[in-house]
Design a protein that fits this description.
heterodimer, A: Arc Repressor Mutant, subunit A, 6-stranded mixed β-sheet, globular, B: about 575 residues, mainly alpha, MetI-like fold, 2 domains, two-stranded antiparallel ribbon, 22 helices, about 75% helix
């Protein structure tokens, strides 16, 4: 579909999404996002988790109203779920009590279309997407791949001009996802899809390069479009093509680039509660460091290659890498990851020594962990409630991020034996912890 | 394996807040208002002549039918209430703030104690006619069914899966379509389960509400409950057994024809993505599904309801409003309105109760409440000691569980008050201690909830954990303490809370009993309420009911909910 890529179909103008907090500045999830979508193109939104790409998709679909800015669709501002826009969900979002046919016809029924016409269009969509014969099955009788086909048929049957896809293949296994992608691209290139344009969110860089005509890379904190990368290949695309590989590498580089300080200061950098943390288990951290230290990487690896050999997606690998960087066990730069001297020491150490190294890194670089330990030390009974820390975190981030940050810190602190945590009482303490020497 | 769902009473907040207080005031105020109205209209209704109850066994089928019809009329009313009240509470944030605590309190009110008022109230609407009495009975059953159904529906509405919610909005379903395509189906398994619990409780009430004595007035509606009351009056033990037999048949038919098929059918609405082991259809459902003629009829019904539920009524829901965007002014106005209402109600209540009752009365009632509380707790402990080992034994043996489980559910539905006369005869004959031997009656009908929940828990106990325990030679007391008891704890608590709630209600009819002219009464809050009802003393009834509600609410909040939260937190991974 290289022809007629001209006419703007949808415009996102200066969209901002923020959650209002009474106590401090607003939490900005998306800041000043401008996107123009033209007829005949597939555009991918890619970025780390928390960069607001799914939020943007929901704003475009009209499910969520932006705090500021507007979305123009067919010349009108979007004020709610708009006709002509249909969505495919990551979790499929099929109604378990409706058959395949009833699920597919849902959107037509909502329009008030007569039964006979509905059935005809429904069957056409079911056949198009390769579901013929499954009309009377219930979703739970189907495999994941077949379920997502129902999701596609349900969206396509209303003949939307714009198809939105929210990580549509991420809940599927590798083979099934690939089949579905190929089938979809085939229908698209043959012009058999009743849509004018597709906007998709993905966390899989290869998937974006395989399917999209343009990729928008999102940066986080606050979420914004960091870079727009055109994909100049025709379909079908070859994953092993050097040019394809190079583009995947480039996108990795953009995603791991040290983010320039955001225009609006989010919080003072040394505040212990300002930085959200990824809940990465210490096993993953140790595992990645061991993989990096061993052959063939010997301390330095190309991220796409590493992701491939460890069978991790970019947004699974990056949080681990970032956490290692935060703890100064490794450095990320331009799509590469490099083990530091402390990282090497960690890999060679035995369990006790590892815990000591980890504890030192936590105290030095994770301000929240240091603050918790300090508070517990200062109390006469060596106990401190988690509620207080959670509240302070929520002054700087959404409750979900606050929870994840706290979970991460608790997990790491337990491993490093910096403090104990009683889940029932929601209390930090020094039980079973040897006094610091 | 029939699975169990959570009764609505279990979830919800633990710590009381200002809204609970407001709700309590509202409920008490409503009770007082009804009592006040009833007091004024008591005299002219006394002229209604009581229906004659025929003790001939051949009259029983007719009585049973009328009793059953009352039951279903009430069920219909409960469903209507559920769909409107719960929907309003879930859709309007402000209304929900007060409506949900009200529901929570209503769940705990022993409505049996208030039967007399509702009877008088409804009869004042239809002076001198049986219709008033019928409505009163139906209302009594309704009050035993509606609250937990509405609660269950409300909880489903507030826990809709976000992706399905987004799907209905993005495909622009209207509010009517959304209600029938998303909200009702999603709520269905919980609703059916809670309806079943309600119905089981309802049989108890229908029997109790047909024969009402209030002061010098005595009313009887043709039905099984009145039949038993008449039999008691005439000391006719044979007639009592006939009534028990008739009730057994009724429950059996209702169980087989309605509830087994309904529960099996509702499984298709269970929100799960994996196909679970398919259970064989109950014979009625199989008949409906496989018989050609019935299938055609079924399809026509389905087509019709599909058309009706697919109508484009209402508007599609728009975007999600940003949090914090709602008007604070409106909130403030609403709060002031509620506060004013509560203050007024409080004043009325104090005025009403304070007119004749003193602090000493309150102290006495609290003491009696403590006695009844002790009874309930001892009964729960005894029932647990008896039924937990049996339930575990049965639950771990699938062949047995399959046979015992339906029987336990059946027994839970049987109105235990029909059995009371048999016990009373024994107590009278052998001059047994009333305070001790009337007590088991309270748990007669409710102990089965413990049994069938424990069976379900033991049956669901993971096989690998059993194997691990066996592999490490964990046996004896250690096995009970570390392996099986924690494993079934959430199920046990689920059963125990239903059982204890039912026992409080049963106290009102179980702590007093009569056989001809012999009247037996134990010491307790239930007996206090029953005697106040006999004497027609509205002030004492209100006081008794309110104190009992407070006891039930307190025990729920302080004991059962924390226990359930603890059990479900500790016994699930992740």
């Amino acid at each position: 579909m290289d022809t007629a890529v001209t006419e703007p179909l949808l415009q996102v103008r200066a969209c901002k999404q923020a959650y209002h907090k009474d106590s401090s500045t607003d939490l900005v999830v998306l800041d000043d996002v401008n996107v123009t979508l033209k007829t005949g193109e597939i555009v991918g939104l890619i970025g780390r988790s928390g960069s607001g790409k799914s939020t943007l998709l929901r704003i475009v679909s009209g499910l969520l109203a932006p705090t500021a800015g507007e979305v123009i669709w067919r010349g009108q501002p979007v004020l709610g779920p708009a006709p002509g826009i249909a969505m495919v969900f990551q979790s499929f979002a099929l109604f378990p009590w409706l058959t395949v046919q009833e699920n597919v016809e849902l959107g037509l029924e909502a329009q008030g279309m007569p039964r006979a016409q509905r059935e005809q269009l429904g069957e056409a969509a079911i056949d198009l997407i390769g579901l013929g014969g499954y009309e009377s099955a219930y979703p739970k009788e189907l495999s994941g791949g077949m379920r997502q086909r129902v999701g596609f048929a349900r969206a396509l049957v209303v003949h939307p001009d714009l198809l939105l896809m929210d990580e549509p293949f991420s809940a599927l296994d590798v083979l099934t996802a690939e089949t579905l992608r190929t089938d979809l691209i085939e229908l698209w290139t043959e012009g058999r899809l009743p849509v004018k344009s597709i906007l998709m969110v993905t966390h899989n860089i290869e998937e974006a390069v395989l399917m999209c005509d343009r990729v928008l890379v999102f940066a986080s904190n606050p979420g914004r479009v960091a870079q727009e990368i055109p994909v100049p290949f025709g379909h079908p695309r070859n994953r092993l093509d050097p040019a394809f590989r190079q583009l995947v590498d480039d996108i990795y580089a953009v995603m791991t680039r040290r983010t320039p300080a955001p225009a609006t200061p989010v919080a003072p950098a040394d505040a212990p509660f300002a930085a959200p943390l990824h809940h990465v288990s210490t096993n993953l951290l140790a595992g990645l460091m061991e993989a990096l230290a061993g052959p063939p990487y010997e301390g330095r690896a190309d991220l796409p290659a590493l992701a491939g050999s460890l069978q991790l997606e970019a947004d699974e690998l990056l949080p681990i890498g970032e956490t290692l960087q935060l703890l100064r066990f490794a450095e990320l730069e331009e799509g590469d990851i490099r083990l530091t001297e402390t990282g090497r020491q960690f890999v060679q150490a035995d369990t006790d020594h590892r815990k000591k190294l980890f504890a030192a890194a936590l105290l030095a670089h994770v301000k929240l962990a240091a603050a918790i330990r300090r508070t517990v030390d200062e109390r006469w009974n060596h106990r401190a409630s988690a509620v207080r820390f959670r509240d302070e975190l929520e002054d700087h981030m959404s409750p979900d991020y606050a929870e994840e940050t706290l979970r991460a810190t608790i997990g790491w602190g337990r491993y490093a034996e910096l403090f104990s945590f009683d889940e029932e009482a929601q209390q930090f303490s020094l039980e079973d912890i040897e006094p610091a020497t | 394996m029939p699975s169990t769902a959570q009764p609505a009473a279990l979830s919800g907040r633990r710590l009381p807040n200002i809204w609970d207080l407001a709700a309590l005031c509202c409920v008490v105020g409503a009770l007082v208002a009804i009592a006040n109205a009833a007091r004024g209209t008591l005299v002219p209704i006394g002229v209604l002549e009581s229906a004659h109850i025929d003790l001939d066994p051949w009259a029983l089928p007719g009585y049973a039918l009328r009793t059953t019809l009352r039951m279903f009329a009430a069920l219909f009313a409960s469903l209507l209430f559920t769909f409107t009240y719960a929907t309003l509470a879930a859709k309007s944030r402000r209304a929900g703030l007060i409506m949900i605590p009200v529901l929570d309190i209503l769940q705990s009110v022993p409505i049996l104690g208030f039967l007399s008022f509702t009877v008088v109230f409804f009869m004042s609407l239809f002076p001198g006619r049986v219709a008033g009495l019928e409505l009163a009975a139906i209302f009594a059953i309704f009050t035993s069914q509606a609250w937990n159904m509405a609660f269950s529906f409300y909880q489903s509405l507030t826990t809709l899966p976000s992706d399905l919610d987004e799907a209905t909005r993005s495909f622009r379903l209207t509010s009517w379509q959304r209600f029938w395509r998303l909200e009702v189906p999603f709520a269905m398994p919980g609703l059916v389960w809670n309806t079943m619990l309600s119905m089981s409780g309802g049989w108890f009430f229908v029997v109790a509400s047909e024969a009402i004595t209030l002061g010098d007035n005595n009313w009887q509606l043709p039905g099984i409950g009145s039949y038993v009351a008449a039999a008691l009056d005439k000391q006719d033990l044979v007639a009592v057994f006939w009534a028990i037999g008739a009730m057994l048949v009724v429950i059996l038919v209702y169980d087989q024809l309605l509830f087994r098929p309904l529960v099996a059918w509702s499984a298709r609405f269970r929100f799960e993505t994996t196909a679970s082991a398919t259970v064989e259809d109950p014979w009625v459902l199989a008949l409906l599904r496989r018989t050609h003629v019935l299938r055609i009829a079924g399809d026509a019904v389905e087509r019709g309801s599909n058309w009706l539920t697919g109508l484009r009524l209402g508007r599609p829901s728009g975007t999600i409003r940003r949090p914090g965007a709602s008007s604070r002014l409106g909130d403030a106005a609403f709060m002031v309105l509620v506060a004013l209402g509560v203050a007024w109600v409080l004043w009325q209540v104090v005025d009403f109760v304070g007119a004749t009752l003193s602090w000493a009365d309150l102290g006495q009632v609290a003491l009696l409440g403590a006695i009844t509380l002790t009874r309930v707790m001892v009964l729960m402990a005894v029932a647990a000691l008896v039924w937990v080992p049996i339930g575990v034994w049965v639950g771990l043996r699938p062949a047995w569980a399959e046979r015992v489980q339906p029987v336990a559910q059946f027994l839970a539905a049987f109105p235990a008050n029909l059995m009371f006369p048999v016990f009373v005869v024994v107590i009278v004959r052998f001059h047994l201690n009333v305070d001790v031997f009337l007590t088991p009656l309270m748990v007669l009908g409710t102990q089965w909830y413990i049994l069938f929940n424990v069976i379900a828990g033991a049956a669901a106990f993971p096989g690998d954990l059993r194997e691990a325990a066996e592999n490490f030679h964990v046996g004896g007391l250690l096995w009970w303490r570390r392996v099986i008891f924690p494993g079934i704890l959430p199920y046990f608590v689920t059963g125990a809370i239903t059982a204890s709630g039912g026992s409080w209600n049963a106290a009102i009819v179980a702590e007093v009993a009569s056989w001809g002219d012999t009247k037996l009464a134990a010491h307790g809050l239930g007996a206090y309420i029953a005697q106040a009802t006999d004497a027609g003393d509205f002030h004492k009834i209100v006081l008794g009911v309110v104190v009992m509600s407070l006891f039930v609410v307190t025990v729920n909040r302080l004991l059962w909910r924390p226990l359930y939260a603890y059990a479900s937190r500790r016994t699930t991974l992740g």
